[in-house]
Amino acid sequence: MPALVSGAAAGRWWWPPASEQPTFSEPAPTSGPGLATLALVAENITSAIVITDALGRIDWVNEAFTRMTGYTLADALGKRPGRLLQGAETQPADIACFRTGLAGRDSFETEVLNYRRDGQPYLVHIKIDPVFDPAGRLRSHIAIQTDITHRRRQEIMNAEVLAHAAHCIVATDAHGIIEIFNPGAVRLTGYVAGEMIGCTKLTALLEPRELVDHAAELTTQLDRVVPPSFETLVWRTHETGEPEEREWTFRHRDGRAVPVRLSLSAMRDAQGRLTGYLGIASGISAERQAEENRREFDLRLRKIASQVPGMMFQYRRTADGRSSFPYASEGIRDIYGISPAEVKDDIAAMTRAVHPDDRERVQNAIRESALKLDPWLCEYRTMRPDGTARWVLGKAMPEPQANGAFIWHGFITDITAHRQAQEAHEQNRAFLQSIYSSVDLAIFVVEATAAGDFRFVEVNPGFERMTGIISGQICGQRAEDLTPIIPPEVGGALQANFRRCAAADDSIEYEEKVAFSGRPMWWLTRLTPLAHAGGRVVRLVGLAVNITERKAVELRAQLLTERLQLASTAAQIGIWDLDLMSQHLMWDERMHQLYGTAPAQFECNFGAWRRCVHPADMGRVEQQFQAALGGQRGLDTAFRILRGDGEVRTLRAFAHVERTSDGRPRRVVGVNWDITAEQHAQDETLRAKNEAEQLNRLLGDSLVRAKELAREPAAAGGAKTAFLANMSHEIRTPLNAVLGMSSLLLTSDLNPEQHELAETIRSSGDSLLDLLNDILDYSKIDSGHLELERQGFVLRECVESALDVLAGRTAEKKLDLLYWMGDDIPLAAEGDVTRLRQIIVNLLGNAVKFTERGEIFLTVRRVPPTVPGGLRLHLSVHDSGIGIAPERMDRLFKSFSQVDASTTRNYGGTGLGLAICKRLVELMRGRIWVESEAGKGSVFQFEVELAAVAPPAPVAAVPLVSSEESRGRRVLIVDDNPTQCRVLCLQAVTWGLVPRSTTSAREALGWLERGDMFDLALVDQAMPEPGGLEFVTALRRVRAPAQLPVILLTPLGRVRAPEKAGVVGYSSKPIKPRALHALVREALLGQGGVRRGAQSGVDENIARRHPLRLLLVEDNAVNQRVATLMLGKLGYMADVAGNGLAAVAALERHTYDLVFMDLQMPEMDGLQATRAICARWPKSVRPHIVAMTANASTDDREACLAAGMDGFISKPVRLQDLRGVLLITPVREPGEMALAK
Questions:
Q1: Is 412 helix (H, G, I), strand (E, B) or coil?
Q2: Domain 958-1092 class?
Q3: Quick one: DSSP state of residue 26?
Q4: For residues 1136 and 8, which has the higher predicted lDDT (pLDDT)?
Q5: Range among 128-137, 862-871, 1088-1097 rated most confident
């Protein structure tokens, strides 16, 4: 490498154009590309950057430094650059220059020889800038290094060429002043370069007479006087642009005449401007010596070329298109895998070595260079003989020849490593850009304003997806300027955190609750200062993660922990922990209570527990425990124990096995709870099932007896009524246990087979109860004892409550249940709402029973009344079921009759339902009839006479007619059921909307894709392919949620999470206009988040919100158990009294909010106890008393209310009945009854 140092002085002969010199500047204050947001320093500069501290130790280097030197940041950190990079041949003068520059306070530039990690020397140009803190103290130095090894080699080569050329080479400026005077010129003329350069014209070397003669020739040719001058010498090459070669006589320094052949060429820059002239002369008498000198020069040039990386060449292209390489260095073997001799006269071998995809581009670049006389600069690929491809860079300058040929002198170097690094960098850049664009993080940049607050200047696509705000809306704005997209309180909080980060001048991280476009969410945000100016932070970059789900999970976990703590206490669950290594067993206090042991006396080991387990169960439990340790299954079992007091109890056990990293069990944590009562309950359930079967037979006998009584004379009516009432009571008492226990079993953790058995028991009990109610209703009607009530009620609520009863069954059978009420029907009416609902439920129930697919459609319309001022309604139930043959129509509406025997076998029933409906309709001064055809469904229709009354105030206050916010808005309705489409269209019109419906999701998507505009979409979830959610997903590709909100119409119990498809509301089927209207209104106004329509179900934990003290008065042990378990399901615990006397005594001792009172009890029945309580305590302080009895007649109800009771529930009791009573019972202060005494 000494040649690099010794040749430095020759640098004045060559310097790269300004366009190729690296320049650096401070980052502009404007917003950069998205990639700049992810890092403070872009790693794509090709020059090496080194930052040192005030003591000269390296703090940071970039990736280009690593590529240049081979040292990573970890290698260089804390080291001094000179000790790391400089070597034996680094010039002391260069080191001294460094020290002088570093001691000053100004930037400086120098060149120095460094060494790479692998020992290879390289020459760099370094620009160093000192960095000072505000107090003027030196903080660091920033050095930018550019590898100039190749450039210096070119300079050295050029200097060598000039120094050893046999020809006389002289270059002048545009006025003829000599700028280059090579050694060949010194040898030829005898003058030294110092005498000639900068002060002498080329014409001083010529014989003056020859210049005068040449001027005379030009005067004749041009027909004007041309004086002898330098312009005369170069006139022809200046005018034609072609080199001019002719013989001249030089005058030697010693006076000798030296004949020469002088070639003159005009030199121009890239813009065609004249920069000077080049003269090459050779003595005519010394041609042989010149040939020897040329050979010597070629040898030296080859030696130089062998040391230069890549290939040096001279490329010739003749006027007729033939190409050759008169000279190619040995580097051609590394570049092309061929020898110089193979291309000396023909370039075919080299052409084949160029990659096929790049050949045309290389040839075009050569032609363009010759045409414009521009430098040839081209990157392309070569194919080596072994099949590998290499990237190369070629540079050459064209020189036109007098004979029409072109010659290029240049070099080709291997840049494969550089291209690979560049491609890796571009891939890394693209990777980072893809992360920036696709990551589910909100990235944003804010900039300080003159007022001290911050405005958004950049957001990434993740921010847009997370917030629903696009870049164009928010960039350039403060958070406070985006109301109502960003609420004022959220904008203020954002600004406060921006200022806090700027004041701290450091990163901060915090959780915040934000809201964008009405969408509240939780963010985990990290703010980092990005840029400073004037000593303050002017830019921040923020990174936010949506942690809404995590916060919800944390809240659920907190609630779950609280519930588990409460449950373990309330459910009396014991917790145990067994260390398998030490066999140490730890019990909590509840475990000792369960096992009846004293903590101080328990040995706390596994053997002590074994002694507590019932011997008959120990083998099975031990086997299950070992299986759990072996990983075959978890531990979930039940077993009996022998308590310390000798009592046998049944416990349930569940345990989790913790294991070491290699899978060995090391610890078991589990729970125990007492299921003795549940075990007894299961036994009672089996007994109840057997009783139900007996009751079924008893009921069959009772039906036979009832028919016999019905045929007896009217005098037997009283006996029949008494018999049915007694029979009802006797059946309802055990039936209460059957239905209650089976309902509770269905809410517990059952396997599929157990669930099916429990469901069979419950459904059989329901059927038995329906049958019992039908018989009692029929008996009342038949005996003429049924009287209709007259009270005001809301018609729509009556209809919708009937639909609710059947909603679950229709959803299970995947049937569409829908209804329509005419606009002219009043809101409220007067009549017997219970019996009207009974008729509707009965007809809908038959329709569901006999329909396997399709729909059930209930319509309500007004018809002319039969009495002046009356209200007559026509109701019809359309179904797509099995239908009825015309010849069997006469069997309908008859008691104990069905269409045929097969119907009874397939669908069940007594044949009383339609008979009761017919009698009830007739009592309401109406009629009932049916239209049907076998296989085509049925239409049951009836008319009843009611009276129109004013509706209750809350109902009247909610309009269902069109309003300003909905009038004229366009709604898209997509439902595969045509009837549902028609109903929704009619309803939309009444609200002032403009509906457009289709039964095809694909047709609706076509409308949207072609640009049809809608303000709202109502979409059925349960459509065939594509389904509702699939349709909404496809819809979102052409419409954003803000452009087209969607309300999903869902079957009961199949509501899906809103995040899946961006749905703004859910309405469960059957569709209720009032609930749907509220969703439509909020969607059109853009209010709130995702809403669901009203859902049916039982709230299983109302006790926490509505705490009550309860007393259950019941003499039957089974009914006591059923009632306490059902109340426990709702979160309540009740005290139990076995008769009326015990109930009054309990009220003397304690304060209660609610008393459930049975009627038929020993010692003191329920009516007597109620009268005693009413006499003892005034109504203002005594508890509510609700009858809970198997006596279900109207007379029984009236007797209870007359005795002072506040409510009435007939057995079998249902959870919904209990919940309704509990919610309307007020909570009393504990001391109220005591004070009343």
A1: strand
A2: alpha beta
A3: P
A4: 1136
A5: 128-137
Burial letters 1083-1121, b for 16+ CB under 10 A, else e: bbeeeeeebbbeeeeeeeebbeebebbbbbbbbbebbbb
Give tens-digit pLDDT for 418-477: 888 888 888 878 777 777 777 788 899 999 988 888 999 999 998 888 888 888 888 988
How far is Cα 191 from Cα 583, in angstroms, rounded to an integer? 109
User: Could you give the 3-state DSSP secondary structure of residue 384?
Assistant: coil
Whole-model pTM over 0.90: no
DSSP state of 1153: S
For residue 925, CA distances in Å to 867, 870, 872, 947, 949 come to: 10, 11, 9, 12, 18
For the domain made up of 553-635+643-674, give the CATH fold: Beta-Lactamase (3.30.450)
Please state which of the ranges 357-366, 716-725, 906-915 shows the lowest mean pLDDT: 716-725
The one-letter amino acid at 8: A
Q: Tell me which of 413-417, 490-494, 573-577, 692-696 is least confident.
A: 692-696
Superfamily of domain 1110-1236: Response regulator (3.40.50.2300)
Tell me the pLDDT of the chain averaged across its residues: 81
Cβ proximity of 861 and 874 under 8 Å: yes
What whole-number distance in Å separates Cα of residue 1140 and Cα of residue 1114? 9
Q: Quick one: fold of 791-955?
A: Heat Shock Protein 90 (3.30.565)
Identical fold for domains 2-148 and 308-418, yes or no, is yes
- Evaluate whether 469 touches 1041 at the Cβ level (below 8 Å): no
Tokens of 1004: 């609706």
Tokens, residue 729:
């009571």
**Nearest one of 64, 87, 65 to 76, comparing CA atoms:** 65
Query: Does residue 1173 register a pLDDT over 90?
Result: yes
Q: What is the pLDDT of residues 868-907, one digit of tens each?
A: 878 999 999 999 888 887 777 666 766 555 555 444 444 4
Report the alpha-carbon distance of residue 544 to residue 526 in Å, rounded: 6
Phi and psi dihedrals of 927, rounded to 5? Answer: -145, 160
How many CB atoms are located within 10 Å of the residue 613 CB? Answer: 19
CA-to-CA dists, residue 808 to 49, 165, 240, 691, angstroms: 73, 105, 101, 29
Fold of 679-783: Helix Hairpins (1.10.287)
pLDDT above 80 (res 723): no
Task: Judge whether residue 185 has pLDDT over 80.
Answer: yes
Burial zone of 530 (CB within 10 Å; 0-12 exposed, 13-18 middle, 19+ buried): middle
- Cα 519 to Cα 483, 493, 858, 1017, 1062: the distances in Å are 13, 16, 38, 20, 12
Q: 671 with 573: CB under 8 angstroms?
A: yes
Distance CA 172, CA 251 (A): 18
Q: Are 817 and 855 in contact (CB under 8 A)?
A: yes
Q: Which positions ≥6 away from 409 have C-beta within 8 Å?
A: 313, 314, 396, 397, 399
- Asked if 1155 contacts 1109 with a C-beta cutoff of 8 angstroms, the reply is no
Query: Quick one: what percent of the chain has pLDDT higher than 70?
Result: 79
CA 1053 – CA 807 distance, rounded (Å):
10
* Pairing assessment for the beta strands 1110-1113 and 1134-1137 based on DSSP bridges: parallel
Number of other CB atoms surrounding residue 62 within 10 Å: 20
Residues in CB range of 195: below 8 A, 6 or more apart: none
Cβ pair 529, 539 in contact under 8 A: yes
CATH superfamily name and code, 2-148? PAS domain (3.30.450.20)
